[in-house]
Write a structure and sequence with these properties.
The complex is a heterodimer of chains A (about 300) and B (about 450). By secondary structure, chain A is mostly helical. Chain A contains 15 helices and two strands. Classes of the chains: A mainly alpha (about 300), B alpha/beta (about 450).
Chain lengths: ~300, ~450
């Protein structure tokens, strides 16, 4: 009897097959997928959806109350025919170039110097990083005072050493470079920190070998430092281009795009369309989309270069 | 908690939060309690004014037992950067303030409710000047209740005038007199600016419009730019000469509406174009000396750009909320002796009372009463503003041009050019600005 009662049970309950390899892996990773879902949800909500929304908006006209209407390429036509459009792109590109010259080379040079130092290294690193801790708005306001044509610090210094004072933000020839100086100063610390990390990963014996071969400091930098940090240099180049092409806070706070549109940038023009010219979000989004496409192209080139490097 | 459970909890939590974000409390509106939200509660940094506002809310609720008022204290209470998003997201107050610069935009985009049949809830609506009511009316429909209206004049520093040997009781009446006075003030020393002017951030173009109106010029006529005229040229030429021949405007290109007021408060700037509320801000916000400022009519006085504000109703408000909102506007902003017009309380709270910054009721009975009460409770020297009051009736008030902000941005270029370049070609600047403006005006 015992056998009879047990046997049917065994027959009715099918033998559970051991989970497949993939199933086991999936189960093992369940919690990881849970975390991933949360992260993906956040990304989708706060990063990807706004991008999709921006693309949609650039083809729509909306007052954000009634349903939007599709207007085709009208928004793109509006911004392209804007008299400030060409100048905004020119200014953005010039700003990016200048920012690359200042904001790319200077942090690298400072990092090399800091890396070479034997004393007070930690203290100087802190000093260099300090501006990053300052809220950008405070830094910009600080420079507004530095640049003041009257009692401003820079002109006081120029005056003190007997040099002619400059108009800084109030002249078409100096306004843009003045903004680059602010930008470089604000971002110097982060750049230096990243370069320093890369420099410290270079094996010391490479330098020793170079020294034994009679290489001086510049030859060591050229033949050891730069090749060894090439990947990080490429990465920083792209980050720098992406960041500087979106420059907004400096013209917004310091020059209002002037004088004579000398500091109007694409991001600033975008802001003007969305919030100054009576809420033309469609045209602002169209400009944003153009900027995004330009930056995607830069990123694609960078990815290709990095791949080749590897 | 196991990591797996934690992850599930996190995901569920996020999903629930997102769902909750879309929710909105609704108002029954029919017979029950009517909930309204109202903008412009004074900030916590102004405790006396805030307390006065809260007292008003309590008094209003007592008089209207079925209405519950919730205040918001965003400062400034109208922010073009967040306005549309707040409206779209259901966060806009039932009653919100709109400055005159944004009336046309808000009304044309149907972001304010048509209250044509409901103006009866504002007792003194009929006393508001017709030309001021016209500003919030489109195609015969009313979209707001104006509460402030004024026109631009010349604000000047009486202390600096005295120091420069000028008579503060006889301020400049023409642009030539402004230039002469500015030159004398600049002669006081290198830190002194005779006449302050803007050159960017749309404020340059905004002041260009004020100056060209004062000379009898126009910004736009028949949907075409009209500023490339003798008057427009005179605006730029005067400014250029003051900057480069007299050196009386300072060497800084000011941007942002507050920058000139800060300089004025610092006591080194002699004159600037501005509405009477500039004095209120200079004294209250920027700690200028109460006795230092005077206002006179705009130089040449052919016409003057008007400023002001109105309260509007959220287009999503139901009938009961609309009625309650308009009753709040009536109580807080349109009744002599109450709310904003409780001048006695304002004086007791240390507010700058006495500036003639509101003429929206004109010579109506309400207007006369308001003027009397303001004078009786003034904490500022009202006699210093008499030149402005005396000239205001003869100056034609003018509205902002169509596509105002875009045109101001275009004219910023010309204004900043004459302030930064000695060899600026004024004819060319105006020609360029005209063609840019015409392409903007040609767009629908």
């Amino acid at each position: 009897m015992e056998t009879l009662t047990v046997e049917p049970q065994r027959r009715t309950a099918p033998r559970r097959r051991p989970p497949s390899k993939r199933g086991r892996a999936a189960r093992r990773n369940l919690s990881a997928y849970g975390f991933l879902c949360a992260a993906l949800f956040c990304f989708a909500m706060f990063a990807w959806w706004p991008i999709v929304k921006e693309v949609l908006l650039s083809f729509q006209s909306t007052n954000l109350v009634d349903p939007p209407t599709w207007v085709g390429l009208d928004n793109f036509r509006t911004v392209v025919h804007d008299p400030a459009f060409g100048q905004a792109w020119r200014n953005t590109l010039v700003f990016t170039l200048l920012a690359l010259v200042c904001g790319y080379i200077i942090p690298f040079a400072v990092a090399i110097v800091l890396n070479e130092l034997r004393h007070a290294r930690a203290y100087l690193r802190f000093v260099v990083y300090l501006p990053v801790m300052l809220p950008p708005i405070v830094a910009v306001l600080l420079f507004r005072w530095f640049y003041d044509p009257g009692p401003g610090l820079f002109n006081q210094i120029l005056d003190f050493v007997g040099l002619p004072t400059l108009s800084w933000l109030d002249s078409t020839s100096t306004a843009l470079i003045s903004l680059v100086i602010v930008s470089t100063w604000m971002n110097l610390g982060s750049g230096v920190l990243i370069y320093l990390a890369a420099l410290q990963n270079i094996p010391g014996d490479l330098y020793e070998a170079a020294e034994l071969d009679g290489a001086g400091i510049f030859k060591r930098i050229w033949h050891v430092t730069i090749p060894q940090t090439r990947l990080i240099l490429l990465l920083m180049l792209m980050l720098q281009i992406v960041a500087t092409m979106q420059v907004f806070i400096e013209p917004y706070m310091l020059t209002g795009g002037g004088p004579e549109n000398a500091t109007v940038t694409v991001a600033y023009l975008m802001y003007q369309y969305a919030f100054v010219y009576g809420g033309n979000y469609g045209a602002g989004s169209a400009l944003g989309l153009m900027l995004m496409v330009a930056l995607l192209a830069v990123a694609a080139v960078q990815l290709r270069l990095t791949r080749e490097e590897k | 908690m196991k990591p797996r459970n934690l992850a599930i909890l996190l995901t569920t939590g996020l999903a629930l939060t997102a769902t909750a974000c879309g929710g909105d409390s609704s108002d029954d509106g029919a017979g029950g309690k009517v909930n309204i939200t109202v903008a412009c509660q004074p900030a916590k940094t102004a405790p006396k004014q805030r307390q006065a506002w809260n007292d008003d809310v309590a008094a209003f609720e007592k008089a209207h037992p079925n209405v519950k008022v919730k205040s918001t204290d965003q400062q400034p209470c109208f922010d073009p950067k967040t306005f549309a998003a707040k409206l779209a997201g259901g966060q806009m107050e039932t009653v919100f303030m709109v400055p005159v610069t944004n009336y046309a935009d808000v009304i044309s985009k149907r972001q304010a409710k048509d209250i044509t049949g409901d103006t009866k809830y504002v007792k003194n609506f009929g006393d508001i000047k017709q030309n001021v009511r016209d500003m919030v009316t489109k195609d015969g429909k009313v979209y707001g209740i104006p509460n402030v209206s004024y026109s631009v004049g010349l604000v000047y520093n009486r202390a600096v005038f005295k120091k420069a040997g000028l008579d503060p009781d006889s301020p400049p009446k023409t642009w030539d007199e402004v230039r002469a006075a500015a030159k004398k003030i600049a002669g006081l020393g290198k830190d002194y600016v005779g006449y302050g002017e803007y050159g960017g951030g749309n404020t340059g173009g905004w002041h260009f419009a004020q100056a060209i109106y004062s000379r009898g010029g126009e910004m736009v006529q028949d949907h075409k730019a009209a500023f490339n005229s003798a008057e427009g040229k005179a605006v730029l030429q005067t400014l250029h000469d003051m900057r480069w021949k007299d050196n009386s405007t300072g060497s800084k290109v000011n941007i942002g509406w507050e920058s000139l007021m800060q300089l004025m408060a610092a006591g080194k700037t002699g004159m600037m174009l501005g509405a009477p509320d500039v004095v209120t801000d200079v004294v209250q916000k920027f700690q200028g000396k109460v006795d230092d400022y005077g206002i006179t009519g705009i130089p040449d006085g052919k016409a003057s750009l008007t400023g002001g504000e109105a309260y509007m109703i959220n287009p999503k408000a139901n009938a009961a909320q609309t009625k309650a909102g308009l009753e709040w506007i009536d109580f807080q902003f349109n009744t002599p002796g109450k709310g904003r017009f409780d001048f006695a309380r304002g004086k007791a709270n240390g507010e700058a009372v006495g500036v003639p910054n509101n003429d929206y009721m004109g010579d109506s009975p309400t207007g006369k009463k308001l003027a009397e009460e303001r004078k009786a409770n003034a904490s500022l020297p009202v006699e210093y503003y008499e030149p402005y009051v005396a000239t205001s009736t003869s100056v034609e008030p003018k509205l902002e041009p169509e596509k105002a902000q875009e045109l101001y941005a275009v004219l910023d270029v010309a204004m900043s050019a004459v302030l930064t370049r000695e060899n600026a070609d004024i004819d060319q600047l105006l020609k360029d600005a005209e063609s840019k403006a015409n392409s903007i005006l040609a767009k629908s």
